[in-house]
Design the sequence.
């Protein structure tokens, strides 16, 4: 019987390894940036086109390679980082396995230009499908340039499963930000489609954070520092008052290697307990330094997960360091009366006669007497004929105002186009606390959750504007606002701009990571517009992280409606209650919110009788 077990060819082995190491263009970016950092570079440039699908190029001014090393670096498990098994437990570099370049060369067209400082000429090598097709001397500066073209050209199945350009670009930005944060002493450039996205001069960590995100982080973060015999903690944490509903920027670095750890995340969030609510998330940029032999970085192909020798001690130190920083920089400041010059206390002279405050009361005032021209409010008593007549005049005026824009509850359920004025349908309306509106119609008591109702209203109106490409009204700003966003958020904002404009936002780009708000939807609080847009962007990002290639108009409208409705937890005036019901009952589905929550309920006299009998 013939042998059935065979050794796989190197090309097949490299393609299999590439499936683990190079999952998307961002994976290639990560490996090339880490190689450039390990080469001792003080200046690194990243250039991408078509979100890395067409071109990825990393240029550095590091040590460079001679002709032999340039050829050998593309071989499987060829590395300069380790030479024995013991070296794995004392890793100080980013990479060490020697898989990255071989994996990239197996699934792309790769060009390398490199020269060492003492070399008269450089070396040019071109590879296709993992094979060297060209090698010759060339003119080049000190350092290396790796150019990756047509990634996954020979693995069409993998290329087919890549996401939209915007989604892939966000992944590349994430990898770039991690590398730049870990090495603020290195100058970084990032170009997309020949357009500069980042220029980060060599600086300290705080300046690097501000350069990557925006200048507002100067006020948003506080330093954290702790030094023990097993762990050194440094970096910055977000102040509690700047915690957001979105997860924001949460970075852990161990020996300047970015890692993901739910265990350490819990240590930080538990330190914020009592300072932030459960539905918001603080930001942090925390660096941990520990002896390399106390961690294992060889448990995952992408090296983003590590194993600590003493996890419980690490957890306790990180939590204590964060709590210490919160206590030092985020406690309410104590008032010093000796130095506070803005407070003036007038001392009482010993011979001054002290008079108690007097309250004046009008003995002739009777709160139960009606004032002329003011309708009787809804109370437990029976309204007088005069108050009923005054109320009828108000309802008649409202009937004219809302005529043609309202519908009855029963009519909307089965006939959405049958519209009747609420002023004639509802005998009275009232508020119940700040959450509910109560209305009486034809002996039926209707209970409406006003926040859920406004969510449905804003959602339907936003979706109608987007689908019909019909711009909504805009409330112009007296003074336009200039807002800054992190690069990934800004790119997503640009992608969503057409839909946002249909929803009533008048927004224009203004340079890198900056936009100007000229107008907002009617009713939106202009002072909260940045928070509104941040939540809209985060919800859209969450939808896109599941690899949705098209803009999520529904996700966008749902996030917008939820944020807009949050400002309606308040007592509504009579005309506001009528407007609410008018717009709600003209929605496509007035009984259920966009999140699937019930908006209203009807209580009939029979229901009340059964309830009371129970």
Sequence:
């Amino acid at each position: 019987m013939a042998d059935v077990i065979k050794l796989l060819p190197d090309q097949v082995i490299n393609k299999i390894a590439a499936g683990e190491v190079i999952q998307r263009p961002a994976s290639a970016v990560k490996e090339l940036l880490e190689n450039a950092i390990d080469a001792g570079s003080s200046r690194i440039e990243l250039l991408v086109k078509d979100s890395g699908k067409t071109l990825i190029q990393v240029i550095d001014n590091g040590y460079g390679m001679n002709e032999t090393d340039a050829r050998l670096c593309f071989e499987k498990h060829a590395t300069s980082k380790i030479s024995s098994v013991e070296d794995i437990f004392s890793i100080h570099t980013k990479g060490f396995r020697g898989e990255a370049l071989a994996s990239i060369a197996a699934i792309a067209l790769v060009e390398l230009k490199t020269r060492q400082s003492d070399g008269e000429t450089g070396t040019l090598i071109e590879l296709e499908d993992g094979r060297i097709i060209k090698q010759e001397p060339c003119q080049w500066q000190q350092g290396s340039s790796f150019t990756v073209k047509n990634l996954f050209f020979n693995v069409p199945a993998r290329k087919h499963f890549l996401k939209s350009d915007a989604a892939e670009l966000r992944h590349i930005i994430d990898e770039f930000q991690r590398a730049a944060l870990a090495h603020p002493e290195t100058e970084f450039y990032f170009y997309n489609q020949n357009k500069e996205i980042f220029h980060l001069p060599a600086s300290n960590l705080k300046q690097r954070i501000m350069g990557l995100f925006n200048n507002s982080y100067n006020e948003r973060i506080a330093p954290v520092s702790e030094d023990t015999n097993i762990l050194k903690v440094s970096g910055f944490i977000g102040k509690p008052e700047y915690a957001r509903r979105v997860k924001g920027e949460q970075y852990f670095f161990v020996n300047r290697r970015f890692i993901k750890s739910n265990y350490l995340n819990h240590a930080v969030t538990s330190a914020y307990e009592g300072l932030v609510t459960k539905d918001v998330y603080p930001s942090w940029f925390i660096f941990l330094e520990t002896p390399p032999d106390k961690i294992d970085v060889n448990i995952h192909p992408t090296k983003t997960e590590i194993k600590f020798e003493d996890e419980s001690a690490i957890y306790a130190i990180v939590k204590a360091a964060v709590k210490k920083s919160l206590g030092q920089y985020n406690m309410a400041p104590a008032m010093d009366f000796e130095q506070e010059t803005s407070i003036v206390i007038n001392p009482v002279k010993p011979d001054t006669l002290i008079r108690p405050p007097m309250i004046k009361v009008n003995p002739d005032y009777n709160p139960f007497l009606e004032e002329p021209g003011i309708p009787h409010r809804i109370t437990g008593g029976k309204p007088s004929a005069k108050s009923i007549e005054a109320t009828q005049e108000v309802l008649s005026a409202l009937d004219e105002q809302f005529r043609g824009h309202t519908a009855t509850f029963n009519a909307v359920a089965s006939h959405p186009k049958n519209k009747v004025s609420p002023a004639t349908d509802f005998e009275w309306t009232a508020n119940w606390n700040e959450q509910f509106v109560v209305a009486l119609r034809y002996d039926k008591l209707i209970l409406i959750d006003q926040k859920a109702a406004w969510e449905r209203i804003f959602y339907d109106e936003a979706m109608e504007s987007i689908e019909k490409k019909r711009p909504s009204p805009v409330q112009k700003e007296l003074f336009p606002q200039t807002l800054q966003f992190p690069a990934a958020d800004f790119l997503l904002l640009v992608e969503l701009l057409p839909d946002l404009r249909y929803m009533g936002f008048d927004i224009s780009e203004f340079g890198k990571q900056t936009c100007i708000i000229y107008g907002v939807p009617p009713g939106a609080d202009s002072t909260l517009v940045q928070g509104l847009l941040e939540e809209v962007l985060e919800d859209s990002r969450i939808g896109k992280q599941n690899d949705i290639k098209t803009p999520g108009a529904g996700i966008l409208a749902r996030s917008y409606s939820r944020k807009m409705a949050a400002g309606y937890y308040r007592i509504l005036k009579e005309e506001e209650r009528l407007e609410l019901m008018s717009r709600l009952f003209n929605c496509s589905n007035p009984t259920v919110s966009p999140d699937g929550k019930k908006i209203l309920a009807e209580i009939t006299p029979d229901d009340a009788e059964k309830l009371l009998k129970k």
